[in-house]
Amino acid sequence: MDYFLLIASVAFIILGYIGAFAPGISGPPMAWIGLLIIAYIDSIHIPTWVLITTGVIAGISFILEITIPAYGTKVFNGSKYGVRGSYLGMIAGLLLPIPFGFIIGPFVGAYLGEVLYGAKDHLGALKAATGTFLGFIVAILMNFAFVSLIAIIWGYYIFYGIINA
User: Fold this and answer.
1) What is the mean pLDDT of each run of 10 residues along the chain (165 residues)?
2) Distance CA 110, CA 126 (A)
């Protein structure tokens, strides 16, 4: 049973890293589930405060992942169409076989969203797309950092559990 839990927790940590970059899957909550799973392995003892603290971090990260791109759009005078376009561009960038599609896609998507539905001129759309893109990149980096933090904690308790088993 312990091996099954270990494999499941590794899968959730990997899913957390994928979710740090892919839209629709929030990475830190997935990584936190991986941490929670190893807490049920008999030889691994994770203090409750660690699980609660990392769970709160994962929850805050989930909220920030949604609000940061919108805030970037608002700061740069964009509309909700820029945010929606950046998410659609991210999905397209991940699916289309173009180099750095996950970076180029959100910017192009935000720009097209602003040009087609939001801003009246191209310069305003470019400015709003830049804000959305910057917010999106900040959210990705934040998610990656939070998933890495949870993965480091996960690795520490795996190693600690093996040494003391």
Assistant:
1) 90 94 85 94 90 94 84 81 84 78 81 81 84 85 94 91 71
2) 8
